[in-house]
Amino acid sequence: VISDEDRGRVRTALDSLTHEERQFVYAWHAPDRHLFDPATQFGLSAGVAKVRAYRLRARLRRMLEGGDGD
Fold first, then answer.
1. Of 24, 22, 68, 70, which is closest to residue 44 (Cα–Cα)?
2. What does each C-alpha distance from 37 to 3, 6, 10, 47 come to in angstroms?
3. How confident is the model at residue 39, as a pLDDT?
4. Distance CA 39, CA 44 (A)
5. What secondary structure does DSSP assign to 7-70, as a single string?
6. Which helix (H) or strand (E) holds 6?
């Protein structure tokens, strides 16, 4: 169970991403990701998609830990 406060912090962090970055995060973490491969959707190689996902998660983590994410 996630608190309303934590839910708000996650929403704020996600909202700070660009539209494309946010769509990529949603696609990468979708439960049916195997049906709609984010790499293909965004015209990326599998390796580049993995790096993008890693970097976006790291940025979100920094934001949630109190940093600015950059």
1. 24
2. 31, 29, 24, 12
3. 92
4. 5
5. HHHHHHHHHTS-HHHHHHHHHHT-TTTTTS-HHHHTT--HHHHHHHHHHHHHHHHHHHTTS---
6. helix 4-15
pLDDT of 70 > 70? The answer is no
User: pLDDT for 21-65, tens place per residue?
Assistant: 999 999 998 888 777 788 999 999 999 999 999 999 999 999 999
Q: Rg of the chain over CA atoms, in angstroms?
A: 13
For tokens 């996650």, name the residue: 10
Structure tokens at 30: 């979708």
